[in-house]
Amino acid sequence: MKHFVKELGLPVAPGHGSLVGIYNGEEFVFEESSWYVINVLKLLWRYGLNPLRMYMWVEDILDKFMRIYRYQTHDYTFSSNERLLHALGGNDFTQMLNQTIDESMQKAGFSHKFINEVVCPAMRVNYGQGVNINGFVGAVSLAGVESGLWAVKGGNKLVCTGLIYAAKAQVIPGTVLSIEPKTRPNSAGDTVKLYHVTYNSTSGSSSDMYDIVIIAAPLNRKMSNITFRNFNPPIPEFSNPYHQTVATFVHGRLNASFFGYEDPSAFHFGSILTTENPKLFINSLGVVSPAENTPSEEKLPLRSAVWKVFSREPLTKEQLNLLFSSYDSVKVKKWLAYPHYSPPEKCPPVILHDRIYYLNGIEWAASAMEMSAIAAKNAALLAYHQWYGNTDKIDQEDLHEKLKTEL
């Protein structure tokens, strides 16, 4: 994504830093201070060297994962998500799909307290699930809570619109209904296989013929209604469910007493993460603001702010009244945000049929914008190399060593 942002010349805004509290349903088990040294001492006192070891553990995984950018720069591609992961981190990466983040970190020697109080809240805010998600997506989630996060001024959606414009792509707004293989004669007197794509647009039902089809939408239940007609063998059905997350945006004043603070002026958190507790009806809540704006210096409970609340179910009026002392606006977005992870995971195929490629299978390894961007480039390279018969660029092993020796 950074490469796209740079190529498009989009301005970047650093993430607004706010103090974090981790709440277990009864009390805050960790309260971040504005003083770095105090935070270090707090973490050492409660968790020992676990935080430092986690940073090193995640960095090691990220270092291996970063190899994908070098591979793709040299136009290498992979015909399955498992092969892509194996090329980056060997058996360690593929095994992470088959065990939970809890199991992965316990094997690495992390304490139960640290996993329950630090790792689990990160999973809940990023994926709405606990430490039973697979180890790879868990590592991605932990990378997402580190410092240095940023956003595009005006919204990350500008990356998508900018790329479409830069590619000079013809965009047809509509909903794909069906895909069907067809044979047509070519100028040489032979027949060629094309794909007949039917879709609904503003002008009604339409269709076109295509050489290559790339599907960038989840094909799982309740996610899309694309019918694959007359394929032999049939296109597989993907029955694994996606996980529902409810995002509630509230403009109002937080009720600090709900979190045990009788004096609102003493409450200074802009982000509240939660541990696993069946009594808790939220996964997290935090202040959000436009990328262009500078946050107010006034303490949060004393002013109205826009809070984003993540929960598994829509919040009732009673629950909103518990969380907020007053509010004047509520917007709710209920969506199937990411897969419901339940290792061992098997990723859907990248190649659904000859010259039909599927991007969203990579979400079962880890669902994130960056993962989708990587999957898109992988599919584009794969389609190109298969079209032109460049088999030496597909599914190559030991690329890390090979590319080092080419320097």
From TrEMBL:
The Enzyme Commission number assigned here is 1.8.3.5
Q: Where is the Prenylcysteine lyase domain?
A: 30-396
User: Looking at the keywords, is Glycoprotein present?
Assistant: yes
**Catalytic reaction list:** [(2E,6E,10E)-geranylgeranyl]-L-cysteine + O2 + H2O = (2E,6E,10E)-geranylgeranial + L-cysteine + H2O2; an S-polyprenyl-L-cysteine + O2 + H2O = a polyprenal + L-cysteine + H2O2; S-(2E,6E)-farnesyl-L-cysteine + O2 + H2O = (2E,6E)-farnesal + L-cysteine + H2O2
- Biological process GO annotation list? prenylated protein catabolic process; prenylcysteine catabolic process
Q: Which residues form the signal peptide?
A: none
- Extract the GO molecular function terms from the UniProt entry: prenylcysteine oxidase activity
What cofactor does this protein call for? FAD
Please state what class of enzyme this protein is. oxidoreductase
- Among the entry's GO cellular component annotations, what is one? lysosome
**Localization, UniProt:** Lysosome
Q: Which UniProt keywords apply?
A: FAD, Flavoprotein, Glycoprotein, Lysosome, Oxidoreductase, Signal
Q: Is Transport there in the keyword field?
A: no
Q: Which Pfam families match?
A: Prenylcys_lyase
The UniProt family comment states: Belongs to the prenylcysteine oxidase family.
Q: What does this protein do?
A: Prenylcysteine oxidase that cleaves the thioether bond of prenyl-L-cysteines, such as farnesylcysteine and geranylgeranylcysteine. Only active against free prenylcysteines and not prenylcysteine residues within prenylated proteins or peptides. Involved in the final step in the degradation of prenylated proteins, by degrading prenylcysteines after the protein has been degraded.
Full protein name = Prenylcysteine oxidase 1
- Organism (species): Dromaius novaehollandiae
Q: Tell me the organism's taxonomic lineage.
A: Eukaryota, Metazoa, Chordata, Craniata, Vertebrata
